[in-house]
Design goal:
The chain is α/β, with parallel strands linked by helices. The chain has one domain: 3-Layer(aba) Sandwich (Rossmann fold), CATH 3.40.50. It has 5 helices and 5 strands. A 5-stranded parallel beta sheet has the order 2-1-3-4-5, with helices on both faces. Helix 2 runs parallel beside helix 3. It is globular and about 30 Å long.
C-alpha cells in the first residue's frame, strides 16, 4: 500500500481522511499547514499528497506549486469544499492529478487515491 500525506489545517478533516485511508493499509502522515507539508514531503517522499485548498498560512495552490518545484512528479489530490468547475480546472492545470470535494465520502476518496496511484509515473 501507499504512504499518503494529508495536508489540512482542520484536525477533524485529517482524522476523517486517516479513518478512510488506514483501514485500506495505507500509511498516513499529517501536516497542519503548507510549511509542515513541504518539510514532511522532503523528509518522507510520500507516494501521494491529499491537499486542502483553503488554508490559513499558505493556500493549497501555493503548496501545490512548491511541491511541484521540489518534485515535478509529485502526485497530489486537491480536496476542497469549492465544487466549481473553474476551481477544478485551475488545480488540475496547476499539476494536481485529482480532485475530491468535501465533505469527504469514503468511496470518492478511495477511488481518487486508487486512480492517482495507478496512473503511470512520468519520471525519467
Amino acid at each position: 500500500m501507499a504512504t499518503i500525506l494529508i495536508v489540512d489545517d482542520s484536525a477533524l478533516s485529517r482524522r476523517i481522511l486517516r479513518s478512510i485511508l488506514e483501514p485500506g493499509g495505507h500509511t498516513v502522515l499529517e501536516a497542519a499547514n503548507g510549511l509542515a507539508a513541504l518539510k514532511q514531503y522532503v523528509l518522507h517522499r510520500p507516494d501521494l499528497v491529499l491537499l486542502d485548498l483553503l488554508m490559513q498560512e499558505m493556500p493549497g495552490l501555493e503548496v501545490l506549486a512548491k511541491l511541484r518545484e521540489v518534485d515535478p512528479w509529485a502526485r497530489v489530490i486537491v480536496a476542497t469544499a469549492d465544487i466549481q468547475d473553474s476551481t477544478r480546472a485551475l488545480v488540475l492545470e496547476a499539476g494536481a492529478c485529482g480532485f475530491v470535494s468535501k465533505p469527504m465520502e469514503s468511496g470518492r476518496v478511495l477511488a481518487a487515491v486508487q486512480a492517482a496511484l495507478a496512473a503511470p509515473e512520468d519520471k525519467p
